Amino acid sequence: MASGTAPVELEMDWQGETRFSGRCGSVEMTLDGSAQAGPTPVQAAAFGLAGCMAIDVVHILIKGRFEVKALRVRLHGERAPDDPKRYVKVDLHFTVRGDVPGEKVERALALSREEYCSVWQSFRQDIPLTTTYEAAS
User: CA-CA distance, 135 to 99, in Å (whole number)?
Assistant: First the structure.
């Protein structure tokens, strides 16, 4: 365990069928294998990856004193056809609004992917991950 990094601890309880409700600290979430009462575990992993990288990118750009007015991320994940139906390819596309040079967005994406995004680093590293971006006004 890295110094100063607390372990993640959560509890989940079966709610019937394929639903589980869980709590991690003060945060509650429902996972549902049929995607009715909440995201499936695989969808939750996608939210985690997209969110982690988006948070990193915004943080890096703001720390670099760039005016980020908005950021949107879209994820497209391809899954294996057979069990375990893991991700085999992930594409993330970021739309950044604000006065931010393209090379700074590219650098923020690279830093997130290579150093900061703990979710991406927790995925299998043989999964192709592409990141693209566009500036929006």
Answer: 9
Here the tokens at position 4 are 């100063």
Report whether pLDDT(103) > 50: yes
Q: If you compute the radius of gyration of the chain from its CA atoms, what whole number of angstroms results?
A: 17
Separation CA 125–CA 82 (nearest Å): 19
pLDDT at 1: 43
Cβ(75)–Cβ(53) under 8 Å?
no
E-strand spans in the chain?
11-16, 19-24, 27-32, 67-79, 87-99, 129-136
What are the pLDDT digits (tens) for 54-92? Answer: 999 999 999 999 999 999 999 999 999 999 999 999 999
CB 95 within 8 A of CB 126: no
For residues 127 and 77, the answer to whether their CB atoms sit within 8 Å is: no
What domains can you pick out in the chain, each with its CATH number? 10-39 (no CATH), 41-136 (3.30.300.20)
* Rounded CA separation 93/131 (Å): 6
CA 60 vs. chain centroid, Å, equals: 16
